[in-house]
TrEMBL record:
<protein>
    <submittedName>
        <fullName>Reticulocyte binding-like protein 2B</fullName>
    </submittedName>
</protein>
<feature type="region of interest" description="Disordered">
    <location>
        <begin position="103"/>
        <end position="125"/>
    </location>
</feature>
Length: 125
């Protein structure tokens, strides 16, 4: 059950990663467009629109900051996904070990029952 829960959690994380990747792409696209406009204003109007230039630069800087924050968040989500995948593997390995131990104990129990049956049969004879 725990493995299934972690797998479901991983699917949710993967969905969030796709959403964030899309948002990151859109932020980059907007940043590129603003940067292009910023460069055009700078080239065409030089110092005439200093306030506009400063505003555009601030917007570009803020978008760049948000893009960097998205990168950090994506990195953390990917680390969480990796950690969860390791947990799934470890739990799967542990489940296999427990199953093998259970099977060994069952074989021992059957062997003891067989030996007990043989002992009773010898005593009866």
């Amino acid at each position: 059950k725990l493995i299934d829960h972690i797998k479901i959690h991983n699917e949710k994380i993967q969905a969030e990663i796709l959403i964030i990747d899309d948002a990151k792409r859109k932020v980059k696209e907007i940043t590129d467009n603003i940067n292009k406009a910023f460069n055009e204003i700078t080239e065409n109007y030089n110092n005439e629109n200093n306030g506009v230039i400063k505003s555009a630069k601030n917007i570009v800087d803020e978008a760049t900051y948000l893009n960097n924050e998205l990168d950090k968040f994506l990195l953390k989500l990917n680390e969480l996904l990796s950690h969860n995948n390791n947990d799934i593997k470890d739990l799967g390995d542990e489940k296999l070990i427990l199953k093998e131990e259970e099977e060994r104990k069952e074989r021992e129990r059957l062997e003891k029952a067989k030996q007990e049956e043989e002992r009773k049969e010898r005593e009866r004879i």
